[in-house]
Design a protein that fits this description.
Chain A is an alpha+beta fold and 607 residues long. In chain B, the strands form two sheets. Chain B has a five-stranded antiparallel beta sheet with strand order 6-5-4-1-7. In chain B, strands 2-3 form a two-stranded antiparallel sheet. The longest helix of chain B has 34 residues, at 2-35. Chain B starts with a helix and ends with a strand. Classes of the chains: A alpha+beta (607), B alpha+beta (247).
């Protein structure tokens, strides 16, 4: 490749004069580094190169013109008789190096040979930044496509070559066959890399996937070859004579040196890298039309050998509910062109566009399965089954048409919004096991009761507070019961409460009689209240209380002298009133007040 | 004052009615999309209704169906699980949840038998039953205090209700503890990888598949520590899962 590349550059290296002085050698070195690179970056350069120096007729090569250091004043348009050279575009790249801008401008041409032979693209001249730069001529060899002759192969002159074969059989349109491409590498051709099929013309075939097999060894003449087999999937698309080729390919290999030996470090030091262009002869096959008799009515062009499985679900649905129908076609053939048979008799169904998924089990893609998934919805409740599904294909191996049929599948379709009536099972035997569901239960038509969004009841303070109501009710009832029981079991307590109630109401009466100045009623009430209070305090009948008895017993209970005096005064007032009933309203009120205070003091005594 | 209250009540009633009618219309539209086989669109329509604040067992059930048909196994299981919270004994919801769970690949967390037993009733149902038993028991005891003559008649029922109260309160306590302390993360992406720590560059722990249900152990900075059915634990991004109460 190096010889194809011509370079003519002008570099301004005037500053190197400074390096001559020994005293200033370090300074000169720094200056060289600082100054040389900027100038080098902006140096003009013009390069012309071909990507390959040898091609087959029918192939193309790429010519690149690269301008560095500035925009070219003119872009030469090479013209060579026998070569068609057309501009395919240009590109530019700008970069900064050590503060200097560097521009690379590239123009590419497509070189298409019109005949075989050796061609020379003459040197071209371009004006870059006022500098006229010229490239050197480039040589291009165009060979006739085709595999080398047997004598060339046997002589061992071919570093690499290839052959292409088709199965020796008649093919049908739509049938997929595997072409065998074999690439031979001579033993001394090391480390082949960059294998590229540059041309693969096919007339009447569509080229599909390729699959590389494991490398084999073969002896041809006096040389051993490594054989790389590649299978190519070809699908016939028409009848008549079909052809493939000539197939062209190029590969980069390392070959040994002139003396035939490899250096101690292999191809890097003892051999040379070489690009090899290979080609095959055209190979033809005969395609015959498909038989025109016994063609199934639903045949839609499928050629191969297939089986079919169908499943659908759910089968217990309402009108308008979707049923998913899955048709899986497995076997050998061209799956890309396989299509689902049309359902011409599915009148009562709404059919949605099916989807498909292909899974192949080999590298060529001619074995595997294709699954079609189709959604259909029944449009009325009178439907009781999914109609039969059939698929027809032509098998090239036996030359006959075949039809695969899936019988009608029962459907239970109910009116929309009506829940299907469950099947009532008869006597269930032990061997009967419930069938697993085939699909989910369909959607519900009614929204149902909207739930209250919010935290659970247990976390709501109001709910928790409400739970105290029965507790309070129970505690209240319990307290009431205890109190009632206490009263029932304690006569003194019951008497004390009764006397307290009597005194409270008697005080009201006393105040009323005092206000009305009714001394008789006042003193009668006062005396009765004193007896009741002292009887309760002294735990004796009220009627039997005397002043002297009360004095003595109250003093024993720890009554204060003031209390006893007040009590005596009250008794004396009651006694005096029997004989002299002259009292003012104020005097009666004062006695009532004194009675109240005395009773309070008496009630504080421990009985 | 009374007039203002009447106006406010009327406004709330009208707003509630309009909201319900809007939800019903949207729900019907979503159902039509589902019937037409536009499952993804239907799923979005159901989600929009749910995002508006409306929620019902049937709505969640249909949303789960649409997600299931759209191939979103995890989101379907999450919707079914939410539906079971509102209607724990709905056979259709249980059937679809089980059907969806059977499609899930790999190991997945399964609730214990007693959690399954507690899940037969919603938390609010447990609360209501326990509260009713509590109220009846205390009212009977209060009646026995107020009317000692009724004691022979009420003693048996009151003791039975007291025992029931203790039992239902224990169940409520267990359900509440499980509801608030145990969570489940449902994986809602086709494939996800758990990591050994809550970091993007942490080492991979194990892979989980769409629809896998994982016990939640911890949550931290957008990561959830989960454990699968086989006892393995790892951290997964919270965006890859939907976290739900265990019951």
């Amino acid at each position: 490749m190096a010889k194809n590349r011509t370079t003519n550059s002008i570099r301004n290296n005037g500053v190197l004069h400074a390096a001559g002085a020994r005293l200033f050698a370090p300074v000169a070195a720094v200056l060289a580094v600082c100054l040389f690179f900027p100038f080098a970056a902006c140096a003009a350069n013009f390069t012309a190169r071909l990507d390959r120096d040898t091609i087959m007729l029918g192939e193309t090569a790429t010519l690149s013109l690269t301008f560095e250091g500035g925009q070219p004043g003119n872009v030469p348009a090479p013209q060579v008789p026998g070569l068609e050279i057309s501009n395919t575009g240009n590109s530019s790249n700008i970069s900064w190096v050590n503060g200097q801008m560097s521009t690379v401008f590239t123009v590419t041409f497509l070189v298409t040979p019109e005949q075989t032979g050796e061609f020379v693209i003459p040197g071209m001249e371009a004006d870059i930044g006022g500098q006229r730069i010229q490239t050197e001529p480039i040589k291009l060899t165009v060979n006739k496509p085709g595999s080398p002759s047997a004598s060339q192969i046997n002589s061992g002159s071919q570093i690499a070559f290839m052959r292409f074969n088709l199965p020796d059989k008649k093919v049908y349109p739509g049938e997929m066959i595997a072409g065998q491409l074999q690439i031979f590498f001579r033993d001394d051709a090391q480390n082949p890399q960059g294998l590229q099929l540059t041309a693969m013309p096919a007339d009447g075939f569509t080229v599909g996937k390729m699959s590389q097999g494991s490398t084999e060894r073969a002896r041809i003449g006096d040389h051993m070859y490594s054989v790389v087999p590649i299978s190519v999937a070809l699908t016939a698309v028409k009848t008549g004579t079909l052809s493939v080729g000539p197939i062209s390919a190029s590969v980069l290999v390392f070959v040994n040196g002139e003396n035939g030996n490899w250096g101690p470090f292999g191809g890097f030091f003892g051999g040379q890298q070489k690009q090899v262009t290979m080609s095959t002869d055209p190979v033809s096959a005969t395609s015959v039309p498909l038989p025109s008799i016994n063609v199934p009515p639903d045949f839609n062009g499928a050629v191969g050998d297939y089986t079919m499985t169908v499943n659908a679900g759910p089968t217990n649905i309402a009108v308008g509910d979707p049923v998913t129908v899955r048709v899986k076609i497995s076997g050998r053939g061209s799956f890309d062109s396989l299509s689902l048979p049309s359902h011409t008799d599915w009148h009562d169904f709404k059919i949605f566009t099916p989807t498909s998924k292909t899974e192949t089990s080999d590298g060529l893609g001619d074995e595997g399965s294709k699954t079609f998934e189709e959604i259909v919805t029944p449009e009325n409740a009178n439907i009781h089954e999914l109609p039969p599904i059939s698929f027809s294909f032509f098998n090239p191996d036996d030359g006959n048409y075949h039809t695969l049929t899936q019988q009608a599948m029962p459907l239970l379709v109910t009116s929309a919004g009506v829940t299907p009536i469950p099947t009532v099972a008869g006597a269930k035997t032990e061997n009967q096991t419930p069938q697993p569901p085939q699909d989910i239960v369909s959607i519900r038509e009614n929204l149902g009761a909207l739930a209250q969004a919010g935290s659970p009841l247990i976390t709501r303070p109001a709910f928790l507070a409400l739970q105290s109501v029965p507790v309070i009710a129970f505690v209240t009832a319990l307290v009431w019961r205890r109190r009632t029981d206490n009263l029932a079991n304690n006569p003194r307590l019951r008497r004390r409460l009764a006397v307290q109630q009597l005194v409270a109401s008697g005080l009201d009466d006393l105040n009323k009689f005092a206000a009305e100045n009714k001394s008789n009623e006042f003193f009668a009430t006062l005396f009765r209240l004193l007896q009741e209070e002292l009887g309760e305090r002294l735990d004796c009948p009220a009627i039997s209380i005397t002043e002297a008895d009360a004095d003595e017993r109250l003093a024993a209970m720890g009554a204060k002298p003031e209390t006893l005096n007040s009590l005596r005064e009250l008794f004396q007032a009651c006694n005096q009133a029997r004989y002299a009933q002259v009292q003012t309203s104020q005097g009666l009120s004062a006695l009532a007040s004194k009675f109240k205070n005395t009773v309070s003091e008496l009630q504080e005594l421990n009985a | 004052m009374r007039r203002c209250c009447s106006i406010l009540a009327a406004v709330f009633f009208c707003a509630g009615t309009l909201f319900a009618s809007d939800v019903t219309g949207d729900f019907s539209h979503a159902n039509q999309l589902y019937a037409a086989g536009k499952f993804s669109d239907a799923a979005k329509a159901y989600d929009n209704i749910l995002n508006s604040g409306a929620v019902s067992a049937n709505l969640l059930f249909d949303a789960g169906n649409a997600q299931f048909k759209s191939g979103n196994l995890g989101r379907a299981i999450a919707a079914y699980r939410r539906a079971t919270v509102l209607a724990p004994r709905d056979a259709d919801i249980r059937a679809n949840l089980d059907f969806a769970r059977n499609q899930v690949q790999g190991t997945t967390w399964r609730q214990t038998w007693w959690e399954g037993w507690l899940a037969a009733l919603s938390l609010n149902a447990w609360t209501a039953i326990a509260a009713i038993a509590f109220w009846l028991a205390l009212l009977l005891f209060a009646a026995m205090q107020l009317r000692p003559a009724w004691k022979p008649l009420l003693r048996g029922p009151a003791r039975g209700l007291a025992a029931a109260t203790v039992f239902f309160c224990a169940c409520l306590g267990a359900a509440t503890a499980t509801h608030f302390s145990n969570s489940v993360a449902v994986v809602v992406l086709p494939d996800a990888v758990t990591r050994s720590g809550p970091f993007d560059d942490a080492q991979n722990a194990f892979a989980v598949h769409d629809g896998a249900e994982l016990a939640v152990l911890d949550q931290r900075n957008g990561w959830v520590q989960v454990s699968d059915g086989s006892g393995r634990s790892g951290w997964i991004k919270s965006a890859q899962v939907e976290i739900l109460p265990a019951i």
